[in-house]
């Protein structure tokens, strides 16, 4: 018998920052609307996805399907930019997606893809499915992505030649230094890929975006105004955020949580650069000094420094006398052991940020980390590394007032220890820190309101679910 509920298929790009929000979206479609959900992942992501779905609301409605493995070695060199590799992987996975859907007894009726999966919307057309894009970032980034093909068509490239901001009608311009690398070089393969993605987005039946109305009212108004954004504004935009990871299942005896349990309220700054980010070695040394000089409590998720900065034997990974990795200052672990915790590569971030002892987050401001901070009312120090993180940093500091941004020294190009010390003290103990803490607590309330029954994101999500139901009839 035909089910009366839509069957939504979600396609996730690789990388935790893409995978996690897609999985959360799938869980929400089940728990809020009783949809059947199939989540397609690349086979490299299958075990992470399975692990994340341990707490899914109703496993009888959820189907996790790893796609057949793909080999991209003949298509891109091993040195290609990570995003190029990712885009090619998604492209190569399309035949597997097509054959998998074709073999399914109960075919999905809706396909939801993320930013790097937009080419799969052609597969949705072949199977007469409705097709949506889920932008796991904010509306400002979505608008830039959707508008960039227009900039490209108008051959308006002063932003490249003159280092000018990118102007988007009705929105805050994107400063040259915040502009995604891909948009700054017409000869870069990523320029064409991002421009194509921008075009494909506007062919969707609708766009889901991980933001909420009160967070970005001006941008959202422009995005829906055809006088400003022409055909882009014709695509329905559903603000469904903040869709954040539910709390991870706590592990008994986790050393990070045990340590946090012993610290005073809002006394610890959490330092992390996302699921894979790290810093050049010299910058890591300065950060270590800055944390030490600040005299504040900290948890720092440390990964070895980026390789291109590894010069000579000093930075080869090893341990010095007290166990400190040799890209951190000698004796750092000993001197900070009473108030600092170094975590190797990965921390249970949702549990850390929701712990009452945490009072600040020094972050690369990936959008998931940002929303996790916001929904816990934690003010941030922003330290963007790549992708749209510079835009996020500008939004958080200049528009939302929930973060501070350290400045790199003009002579060395790195953020020096005195600046880091000053920032950490400012956020953790000074009046200005209190001010932004109050601001982010207000944002937390407004995020909560948006998600509860009758709130803007709740209603928008229900509207999207209704569209899927209508397309079923
Ligand atoms: N994360 C985590 N522990 C870590 C680092 C990251 O749980 O030590 C999670 C974090 O909670 C977030 C995701 O990984 O959900 C990172 O996504 P984000 O968009 O912030 O950054 P990306 O890794 O994509 O740059």
Automatic annotation (TrEMBL):
It comes from the Eukaryota. InterPro entries: UDP_glucos_trans, UDP_glycos_trans_CS. Its EC number is 2.4.1.-. Keywords: Glycosyltransferase, Transferase. SUPFAM superfamilies: UDP-Glycosyltransferase/glycogen phosphorylase. It comes from Rubroshorea leprosula. It is an enzyme of class 2 (transferase). GO terms for molecular function: coniferyl-alcohol glucosyltransferase activity. This is Glycosyltransferase. Belongs to the UDP-glycosyltransferase family. The keyword Nucleus does not apply.
């Amino acid at each position: 018998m035909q089910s009366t509920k839509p069957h939504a298929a979600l396609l996730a790009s690789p990388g935790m920052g893409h995978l996690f929000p897609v999985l959360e979206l799938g869980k929400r479609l089940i728990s809020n609307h009783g949809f059947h959900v199939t989540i397609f992942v690349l086979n490299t992501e299958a075990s992470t996805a399975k692990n994340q779905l341990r707490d899914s609301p109703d496993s009888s409605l959820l189907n996790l399907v790893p796609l057949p493995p793909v080999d991209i070695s003949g298509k891109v060199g091993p040195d290609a930019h990570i995003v190029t590799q990712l885009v090619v992987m998604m492209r190569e996975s399309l035949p597997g997606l097509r054959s998998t859907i074709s073999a399914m007894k109960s075919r999905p009726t809706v396909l939801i893809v993320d930013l790097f999966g937009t080419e799969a919307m052609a597969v949705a057309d072949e199977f007469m499915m409705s097709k949506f894009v889920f932008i796991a970032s904010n509306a400002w980034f979505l608008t830039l992505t959707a508008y960039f093909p227009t900039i490209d068509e108008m051959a308006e490239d002063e932003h490249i030649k003159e280092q000018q901001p990118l102007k988007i009608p009705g929105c805050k311009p994107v400063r040259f230094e915040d502009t995604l690398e891909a948009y700054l070089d017409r000869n870069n393969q990523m320029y064409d890929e991002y421009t194509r993605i921008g075009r494909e987005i506007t062919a969707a039946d609708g766009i889901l975006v991980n933001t909420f109305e009160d967070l970005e009212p001006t941008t959202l108004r422009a995005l829906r105004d055809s006088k400003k954004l022409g055909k882009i504004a014709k695509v329905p935009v559903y603000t469904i955020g903040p869709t954040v990871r539910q709390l991870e299942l706590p592990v008994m005896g986790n050393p990070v949580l045990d340590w946090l349990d012993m610290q005073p309220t809002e006394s610890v700054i959490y330092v992390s650069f996302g699921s894979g980010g790290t810093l050049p070695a010299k910058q890591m040394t300065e950060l270590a000094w800055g944390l030490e000089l600040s005299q504040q409590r900290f948890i720092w998720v440390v990964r070895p420094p980026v390789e291109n900065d590894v010069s000579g034997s000093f930075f080869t990974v090893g341990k010095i006398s007290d166990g400190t990795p040799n890209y951190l200052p000698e004796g750092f672990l000993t001197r900070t052991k009473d108030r600092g915790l170094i975590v190797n590569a990965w921390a249970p971030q949702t549990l850390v940020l929701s712990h009452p002892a945490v009072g600040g987050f020094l972050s690369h401001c990936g959008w998931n980390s940002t929303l996790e901070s916001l929904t816990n009312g934690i003010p941030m120090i922003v330290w963007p590394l790549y992708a749209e993180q510079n835009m996020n940093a500008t939004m958080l500091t200049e528009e939302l007032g929930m973060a501070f941004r350290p400045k790199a020294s003009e002579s060395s190009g790195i953020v020096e220890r005195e600046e880091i010390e000053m920032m950490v003290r400012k956020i953790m103990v000074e009046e200005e820190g209190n001010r932004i803490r109050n601001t982010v607590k207000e944002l937390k309330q407004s995020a909560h309101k948006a998600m509860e029954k009758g709130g803007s994101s709740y209603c928008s999500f229900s509207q999207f679910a209704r569209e899927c139901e209508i397309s079923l009839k």
